[in-house]
Specification:
alpha+beta, four-stranded mixed sheet
């Protein structure tokens, strides 16, 4: 079973459990989920992690997604956000840039203390998005 299927299955089980009347009545947490397309360039860009400059994308087989899950206390207290990327991995620069955007929109609600970003480790997506030289050599630099 591929990672995106496992993530979907996990979300389905979570929603099923949370929608049962016993669980919802005893739960005091707010839970939110969202998904966004992060496919990026469809062709002529190096694939992430192959370390082969000739290994380039030539179209889209499946769209790549970012899936976010937020769990918060209803009184505005603690909260945590977990983002799972259909990408080889996240990195420090990805996290920093996401946190900058979150800060500009939500102030100090989301910080490095309550946001986790992870990749499913697929090589089926574009490369060139990490700050580490070894990962961007074959993509010939940064790819937006």
């Amino acid at each position: 079973m591929e990672a995106s299927s496992r993530t979907f299955l996990f979300c389905l089980v979570l929603v099923t459990i949370l929608s049962s009347s016993r669980c919802v009545r005893s739960s005091s947490y707010l839970i939110g989920m969202g998904s966004h397309d992060i496919t990026g360039p469809a062709a002529d860009v190096n694939m992430m992690g192959y370390a082969n400059a000739e290994q380039t994308a030539a179209g889209i087989h499946f769209r790549l997604k970012a899936r976010a899950f937020i769990v918060a206390e209803p009184d505005g207290g603690n909260r945590v956000a977990f983002v799972n990327l259909d990408a080889c991995m996240a990195s420090q620069i990805v996290t920093i840039k996401v946190l900058e955007r979150l800060k500009s929109r939500y102030g100090n609600l989301y910080t490095e203390n309550n946001v986790a970003i992870s990749g499913i480790h697929t090589h089926a997506g574009p490369g060139g998005y990490l700050q580490y030289v070894v990962y961007i050599v074959t993509s010939l630099g940064f790819v937006r």
